[in-house]
Each structure stands twice: as structure tokens, then as C-alpha cells.
Amino acid sequence: MRLVLALLAAGACPFAWSGTAFAQSASQPSQPGAIERGHHLFNSQCAHCHGEDASAEDDYYNLPQLLIDKNDAFFFATVNKGLPEKGMPPWKDVLKPRQIADLLAYIRSLEREQGLIDNQAPAH
């Protein structure tokens, strides 16, 4: 029993999937085309609030600026759960984890493009 608890605490259980573990590697596009897919998805699903190409003038909706100090797990949790009090619906039943990872890859690419983070900086 102690061994099982120790393994669970260490995150060794293969059934204890966590969006956090997936999210931590999401900003490193592991699949070719992640940024492009994220760009297309962003403009079709997110632009109505966050601006075409994530260029909202309001800092609250400008995701590259808003997420600069947030980690990938924060992004995954926010997209999945939404922010109902701010008018953002939960997307967990609409978007697949890979699509959220593609969105994040796109937003992280914008952070670099806009000079918000160093191009050599490690991913969030």
C-alpha cells in the first residue's frame, strides 16, 4: 500500500493523467504545423473576443501580453474551464487537448514574434 501511495505521489501512475503534464510540453510544438493549426483555430474560434491574430487592443483580451507570465498549465486550465464571470465559456467539450496545445503553440510564437520573450528563452 505504501508503495502505491508513493508511486501516486511521484506521479508514476499511468492512469493519473494530468492536463498539467501535457500542458508543460505544449508550447514546444512536437507536431509539425502546430503553430499554423493554432493560428487557424484561433482565428476561427477565439478572434471574436481576442482579436484577429490575437491583436486585441484591450490588454485583458490580448493573449500574448496576458499570458506572458503564466505557465502552460494555466492556459490549459483556463481554456478547459473557461472564465464564466468574464464571459469566456468552457471549451473542454469543444476542443481536444491537441487543439488547445496548438492554440498555445501559436500564442507562444506570438510572444516571441512581438519581442515579449527572448527567442532563446525556455518554454513555459
* Measured distance between first and last alpha carbons: 35 Å
Number of strands: 0
The overall average pLDDT, rounded, is 77
Residue ranges: pLDDT <50 for 5 or more in a row?
A: 1-27
Which structural class should the secondary elements be placed in? mainly alpha
Number of domains: 1
CATH uppermost class: Mainly Alpha
Please count the helical segments. Answer: 7
Q: Percentage of helical residues?
A: 40-55%
Largest sheet: none
> Which architecture does the CATH hierarchy give at level 2?
Orthogonal Bundle
Structure write-up:
With 124 residues, this protein is mostly helical. It has one domain (26-113): Cytochrome Bc1 Complex, Chain D, domain 2 (Orthogonal Bundle), CATH 1.10.760.10. Helices cover 49% and strands 0% of the residues. Helix 6 crosses helix 7. The chain is globular, with a radius of gyration of 16 Å. Mean pLDDT is 77; it is low at 1-27.
Quick rundown:
This protein is 49% helix and 0% strand. The chain has a single domain (26-113), classed as Cytochrome c-like domain (Cytochrome Bc1 Complex, Chain D, domain 2, Orthogonal Bundle). The chain is globular.
Topology readout:
Layout: H1 2-9, H2 19-24, H3 34-45, H4 47-50, H5 63-66, H6 72-81, H7 97-113
Salient structural properties:
124 residues; Cytochrome Bc1 Complex, Chain D, domain 2; disordered N terminus; 7 helices; mainly alpha
